[in-house]
Amino acid sequence: MQVPTELRYTSEHEWVRPGDGPLRIGITDYAQDALGDIVFVTLPEPGTKVQAGRPLGEVESTKSVSEIYAPVSGTVTARNDALTDNPELINTDPYGEGWLVEIEPSGEVDLDDLLDAPAYEELIEAD
Amino acid sequence: MDSELRQSPLHDRHVALGAKFAPFGGWTMPLEYAGGGVLREHTAVREAVGLFDVSHLGKVTVTGAGAVAFLNARLSNDLAKVGAGQAQYTLCCDEGGGVVDDLIAYRFADDHVLLIPNAANAAEVVRRLRAGAPDGIVITDEHEAYAVLAVQGPRSAEVLTALGLPAGHPYLTFRTAELGETGLSDAELNDAGPAGVSIVVCRTGYTGEHGYELVVPAGSAGALWDALLRAGEPYGLRPAGLAARDTLRTEMGYPLHGQELSLGITPVQAGLTWAVGWDKPEFWGRDALLAEKATGPRRRLWGLRALDRGIPRPHMPVLAPDSDTVIGEVTSGTFSPTLKVGIALALLDTSAGLGPDAEVVVDIRGRRSRMQVTRPPFVRSSVRT
User: Which residues of A touch B334 (CB under 8 A)?
Assistant: First the structure.
């Protein structure tokens, strides 16, 4: 299971790519593997305000549905529209082509509140 | 918990193929395989051929003089309508008409029938049959003595033929073969155990495709699995897990016990009146089912096809289109890999008066998803072609 070291993670299996400006988020390799083949994705329109820890969308596989939680509070600035026709990108490239949205954080964000790669690995090993 | 689950004789092979496992009727069985996944495995069965391990299914032999007559006075369908070498879909009901289990009966001879019940219900079927069985009728639970492999898909006959196994016989008939007289390699035959191992090849399945179910002694199952994987390679064969089996059977509208059938859901409600021998003088649940058939069921199983991007799931309420009146419940629901939309089987109240093409709403986690009532199957059946 891939857990890139440069990313930060939530206990709900989202990843965040640290950087200046909008933060790109997605779901982890572990999450896509647990869901199986993803067939539908529901994501918020750019401009939507989201709150950390609150659901912002859904990914749905043949067998089950899973909510995606906003890792940070802010405004959605971009949405990966390629997922509408190719939701399997989340399965094949969860940290790349399968990204979900970008969020411009409102105010100061301390990414140290999120899990680093070793802490996330520990979490999924305990699962 | 896991240690209490029973394992297929092919378990180690599934592990080696990178399978994900799920508990199923007290067994741990492959859900999907690495490099496959439910969509690829589903498509392989619809377009080429898939190989399933369904060894969790029960195997119960009923032997002794009058075995067919004994079963015919208990199970719903009329076993007198099939002859030796034929198989029949039938139900084990309780006195109230509820369904204890649905099963396949293989009629070998008047004094020999093999039953294939569901994993979770096999012991209960055995218990009910043994209670009050006359002397001379022997009911043997052989759940772990045999494995069952399902070879399903338009190219399934070619795979079996390549191994020298029987193929092409009519739907719901079976043939037997000695493994030693087939095209298994020397290594596979060596692995299959002593010479003279006999397997049953039945033209049945749960996918809607041309296919076969192979009943093989547990000790020879690994060799047969290996041989089928090898022989199937040129035909695009993939190992397929129970996740694909579920999407395939849902597209066909086939019931799954515990969802479309249960002690609380009768065959009249589930649209299985064709699996009841109404003219028989005796079978379990006869009086209750005749009464329900005469008055009409209070609810009936229908198919639903999503008109938007909703994917219905079991237990979701079905609502009348113009009100929030609950008129039914989803029993099975999934994304259809063939149709690329959500589909469901649902029990709808007959008082709502809905039929094919009517529109209903499914409450999907608070969202109203529009669905069209249809008569399954959702995808054309190819079992007889």
Answer: 62-63
